[in-house]
């Protein structure tokens, strides 16, 4: 989930305070005397009347009661940097936009785990590359420029074990969740806060209403805190966020890497963000325990992972949720947003969703003007009680193709139905079962990437590929595809089955880059070193002959459940069913839809010794697609 962002100086803070008006039409506000400052509301929206340049900056060290993650006998503390309108010292009370992060201090260089393993899953001796990191603020400072003048306060929370906080980073468990939760408690008068000299500090200027927002790890913490049900957290905006850490570093029983970080695991991430003073001395043993318990041999789900699964707390969520995710994000994969979204829907949590065609991106960089409009309306509604109209707009904004945005009543798109496709003779894939299709065998290898296996033409010894005829119409899928495969394994150790859903056909597709339009847009008040302006950008595209639309992985030893390894009998047929990463994608008329089956996925799975023979029975295998538009041949 690594944006790998370094700490921003307080001179370029994230967001600002927003407060209630004197008019009785705004709910949740308190009438004030004539000389008390108040926000200005026009057209059901807060207006930029407060000075960013004159804002008050302060740092508070909040006690995380009941949490002593470094075992020093004292409660952990987190550092909270605050920026608020100067009028809050004159009686103005405002809500808070909060971003918690372990990335506010520059991270450490940490070696990833080797991914080439022996037949028992033990790492082979190898040199491992250092994880690539970026040292830049995750939001380019737009919160303070845009929201503070409209009456919001910004709070940046340095999470446990990082920067000026105490405690130890534990990669997603309750200790890390407790840090920003304590900051919310402090804003509501329920936790202790101190200045640098140790003097008590109280948030007398706060309304107690908090909205959390962030990208990647910073977006994951809002999910974690919301799952505690803490009072005062009114809304969260998780962007490219994790809902279960197991599904970040594992998949269906198998060890799996986040895209671009092959070999990373929870212990590597904890070491990276361990930036507190005397970190190794205070937290070395804690991180050693993480390395021991994460289990890179079996990949099984366990109590260790269960405490890092925020799906367990979805029934406690009281905050509204504005989900944002890239449909081409292979770092924090799309299952993370989808399973959270599905569960929130069952709990009838007020929610909204943006799905874009980018990768691990901030929507501010992708669709700046519309993002600010909707985010403004969202925060005004949930933190100020202003009827901004945002909750009457369609629930889902989906980028169907680069720059082509649509609005829908919900997601997956209404009217979606599951349609099975069956592999058959001659590498065919169609609507009708093929009862006479012969068994087919491929041999696992560990040096060719999935892309190389997909682009190879004709039969290939290292994969099986099945394709439809040319599509008679556009075909759109929306949701989570699944696959069932009957297969046997022998003469090797690789336990993986990997399924690739492929769009075969030359087209112009997003390539993960952002391109400047050359147009400068000033969205908020500037200060020295931060103009409050940005260059508008659009998704970059490339012409490609195919696209791997989505993937799914299974450790076949976990065919029954992710927390139990059951060995395979060599040569015995088993039925395996697993999910792809959720998606929303249109296969164009004239293209061919393909299902490719491999074992080792070079850039994601562990790499066992080559040579495992996998035999597929097409007659008892099928691909299930959530189709919302079009007709299959």
Radius of gyration, in Å, reads: 25 Å
User: Judging from the principal axes of the Cα atoms, what is the shape?
Assistant: globular
Uncertain stretches of 5 or more adjacent residues: 3-31, 127-140
Overall helicity: 10-25%
Mean pLDDT, as a whole number? 92
Ends distance? 39 Å
Q: Can you count the helices? A: 10
Beta strand % = 25-35%
Main structural class: alpha+beta
Largest sheet: 12 strands, mixed
Number of strands: 28
Structural account:
This protein has 633 residues and is an alpha+beta fold. Helix content is 15%, strand content 32%. It has helices spanning 142-147, 174-187, 217-226, 246-249, 266-273, 279-293, 303-306, 335-346, 368-384, 450-455; strands spanning 16-17, 41-42, 45-46, 56-64, 76-84, 94-101, 152-158, 193-194, 206-215, 233-239, 250-251, 254-255, 320-326, 351-356, 396-401, 404-408, 417-424, 428-430, 440-443, 464-467, 475-479, 482-490, 496-522, 533-555, 574-579, 583-587, 592-598, 613-629. The protein is globular. The two termini are 39 Å apart. The model is unreliable at 3-31 and 127-140 (pLDDT under 50).
Topology:
Elements: E1 16-17, E2 41-42, E3 45-46, E4 56-64, E5 76-84, E6 94-101, H1 142-147, E7 152-158, H2 174-187, E8 193-194, E9 206-215, H3 217-226, E10 233-239, H4 246-249, E11 250-251, E12 254-255, H5 266-273, H6 279-293, H7 303-306, E13 320-326, H8 335-346, E14 351-356, H9 368-384, E15 396-401, E16 404-408, E17 417-424, E18 428-430, E19 440-443, H10 450-455, E20 464-467, E21 475-479, E22 482-490, E23 496-522, E24 533-555, E25 574-579, E26 583-587, E27 592-598, E28 613-629
Parallel strand pairs: 6-7, 6-9, 9-10, 10-13, 13-14, 14-15
Antiparallel strand pairs: 1-7, 2-3, 4-5, 4-8, 5-7, 11-12, 15-16, 17-18, 17-28, 19-28, 20-27, 21-26, 21-28, 22-25, 22-28, 23-24, 23-27
Helix pairs in contact: 5-6
């Amino acid at each position: 989930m690594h944006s790998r962002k370094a700490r921003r100086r307080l001179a370029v803070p994230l967001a600002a305070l927003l407060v209630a008006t004197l008019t009785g039409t705004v709910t949740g506000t308190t009438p004030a005397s004539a000389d008390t400052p108040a926000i200005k509301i026009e057209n059901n929206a807060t207006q930029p009347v407060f000075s960013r340049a004159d804002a008050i900056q302060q740092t508070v060290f909040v006690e995380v009661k009941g949490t002593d993650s470094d075992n020093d006998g004292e409660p952990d503390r987190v550092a909270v940097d605050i920026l608020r309108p100067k009028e809050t010292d004159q009686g103005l009370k405002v809500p808070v936009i909060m971003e918690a992060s372990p990335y506010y201090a520059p991270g450490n260089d940490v070696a990833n785990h080797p991914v080439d393993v022996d037949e028992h899953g033990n790492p082979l001796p190898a040199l491992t590359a250092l994880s690539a990191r970026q040292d830049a603020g995750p939001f380019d400072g737009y919160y303070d420029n845009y929201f503070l003048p409209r009456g919001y306060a910004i709070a940046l929370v340095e999470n446990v074990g990082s920067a000026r906080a105490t405690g130890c980073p534990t990669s997603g468990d309750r200790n890390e969740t407790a840090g920003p939760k304590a900051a919310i408690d402090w804003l509501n008068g329920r936790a202790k806060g101190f200045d640098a000299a140790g003097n008590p500090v109280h948030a007398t200027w706060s309304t107690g209403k908090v909205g959390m927002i962030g990208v990647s790890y910073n977006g994951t913490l809002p999910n974690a805190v919301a799952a505690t049900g803490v009072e005062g957290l009114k809304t969260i905006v998780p962007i490219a966020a994790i809902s279960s850490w197991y599904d970040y570093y594992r998949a269906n029983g198998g060890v799996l890497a986040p895209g671009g970080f092959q070999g990373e695991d929870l212990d590597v991430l904890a070491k990276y963000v361990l930036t507190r003073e005397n970190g190794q001395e205070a937290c070395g043993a804690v991180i050693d325990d993480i390395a021991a318990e994460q289990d890179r041999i079996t990949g099984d789900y366990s109590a260790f992972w269960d405490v890092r699964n925020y799906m367990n707390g979805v029934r406690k969520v009281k905050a509204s949720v504005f989900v944002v995710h890239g449909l081409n994000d292979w770092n924090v994969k799309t299952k993370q947003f989808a399973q959270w979204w599905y569960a929130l829907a069952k709990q009838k949590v007020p929610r909204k969703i943006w799905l874009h065609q980018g990768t691990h991106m901030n929507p501010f960089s992708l669709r700046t003007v519309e993002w600010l409009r909707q985010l403004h309306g969202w925060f005004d509604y949930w933190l100020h009680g202003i009827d901004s109209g945002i909750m009457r707009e369609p629930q889902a904004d989906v980028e169907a193709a680069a720059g082509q945005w649509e609005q829908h009543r919900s997601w997956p798109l209404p009217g979606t139905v599951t349609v099975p496709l069956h592999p058959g003779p001659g590498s065919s894939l169609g609507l009708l079962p093929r009862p006479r299709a012969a068994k087919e065998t491929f041999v696992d290898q560990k040096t060719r990437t999935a892309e190389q296996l997909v682009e190879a033409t004709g039969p290939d010894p290292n994969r099986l590929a099945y394709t439809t005829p040319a599509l008679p119409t556009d075909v759109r899928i929306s949701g989570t595809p699944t696959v069932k495969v009957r297969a046997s394994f022998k003469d090797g150790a690789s336990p993986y089955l990997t399924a690739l859903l492929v769009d075969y056909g030359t087209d112009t597709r997003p390539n993960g880059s952002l391109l400047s339009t050359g147009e400068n847009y000033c969205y908020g008040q500037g200060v020295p070193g931060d103009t409050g302006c940005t260059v508008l950008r659009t998704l970059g595209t490339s012409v490609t002959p195919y696209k791997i639309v989505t993937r799914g992985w299974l450790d076949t030893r976990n065919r029954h459940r992710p927390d139990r390894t059951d060995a395979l009998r060599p040569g015995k047929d088993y039925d395996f069913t697993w999910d792809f990463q959720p998606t929303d994608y249109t296969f164009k008329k004239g293209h061919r839809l393909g299902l490719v089956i491999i074992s080792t996925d070079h850039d994601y799975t562990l790499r066992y010794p080559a040579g495992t023979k996998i035999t597929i029975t097409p007659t008892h295998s099928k691909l299930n697609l959530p189709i919302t538009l079009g007709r299959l041949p």
